[in-house]
Amino acid sequence: MLEAIRLVRDATTGLKDAETEHGPVISDNEAKALVIGLGIGTTPGALIAHGINTTVVEIDPVVHKMALDFFNLSKNHTAYIEDATVFVKNQIVEMATEVQARNAAAKDSSKEDMVLGKYDYIVHDVFTGGAEPVDLFTETFIRSLSYLLKPDGVIAINYATDVFLPSASYVYTTVLSVFPNCRLFRDTDPAESNASSATSDFTNTVLFCRKAKNPFVFRDPIKSDYLGSSIRQAWLKPKYEVSLEPFVGNRNGNGWELDFSKVLTKDRVFELKKWHAASAARHWELMRTVMPDIVWERW
């Protein structure tokens, strides 16, 4: 579902013909993407395959090596094996230095500023099994990502969670405090979820957000978007949209009525940490329905 970041379109411009509907706002070979969190490399691999200039940030060198050696991740990308908070800080400093240099060299009175951004797409995908790295969900980090995103850019934030736990509300509220223009999707049909009771519903969710204020839609995929994959054909375009209001509050003409006590500052990350154990337990309860216990015990 994260690959659907390429399908985002401004809903206010309209789709006048097939070329407009299927053609990208920015061509893939001109786009730049930042992917934070590698895993086996499925999403960055797809972006690379579409010709997008892709930068990957992964803290674990073994994860990067495994993706290259065993999961066919293309070497045609820029990799930073480091803490994403350090990478993002360095990128902002580098971008500010470049802007200052251009402004100093400009012969006219026009000035650039940090709003210009650097990336067309940012993918935030750091799920680790129920105990996500909390520093990557703080308001400070999410706002830093907004500085790196171009004005028309899109960010997709993956968050696997039990939607009945309070942690989901904290994460979504924090993201919306920076990016008010978001839509939330889950990868399982809530009517067919594992939560036959009303006490547990662990699922993968993705927040797609635009820096621009205009509402957005997802264009229909075409054959080339699928990269020859039947799985992509079935799941590329987000299907199951979820209302954000139960998690973050009502939306009115002036925006979201957020509870800012739920914004994850560095002093409040304990609100996320304290639900790690419950989230991890519910995740592994779900995973044990996917494969037999003996597989996980040996793993």
Write a short abstract of this structure.
The protein has helices spanning 18-22, 42-49, 61-70, 84-105, 139-148, 167-178, 230-235, 245-248, 270-273, 276-287, 293-298, and strands spanning 8-10, 32-36, 53-57, 78-80, 119-124, 149-162, 181-186, 202-210, 216-218, 240-242, 251-252, 255-256. The chain is an alpha/beta fold and 299 residues long. Mean pLDDT is 88; it is low at 16-23.
Structure description:
It is built from 11 helices and 12 strands. With 299 residues, it is an alpha/beta fold. The chain has an 8-stranded mixed beta sheet with strand order 4-3-2-5-6-8-7-10, with helices on both faces. The longest helix has 22 residues, at 84-105.
Identify the overall geometry. Answer: globular
Structural class: alpha/beta
Unreliable residue stretches: 16-23
Order of helices and strands: EHEHEHEHEHEHEEEHEHEEHHH
Q: Say how many strands there are.
A: 12
Average the pLDDT over all residues and give the rounded result. Answer: 88
The biggest sheet, with number of strands, parallel, antiparallel or mixed sense and barrel status, is: 8 strands, mixed
What Rg do the Cα atoms give? 20 Å
* Tally of individual helices: 11
Strand order of the largest sheet: 4-3-2-5-6-8-7-10
Q: Per DSSP, what share of the residues sits in E-state strands of 2 or more residues?
A: 15-25%
* Distance linking N and C termini: 27 Å
Helix fraction bin: 25-40%
Topology:
Layout: E1 8-10, H1 18-22, E2 32-36, H2 42-49, E3 53-57, H3 61-70, E4 78-80, H4 84-105, E5 119-124, H5 139-148, E6 149-162, H6 167-178, E7 181-186, E8 202-210, E9 216-218, H7 230-235, E10 240-242, H8 245-248, E11 251-252, E12 255-256, H9 270-273, H10 276-287, H11 293-298
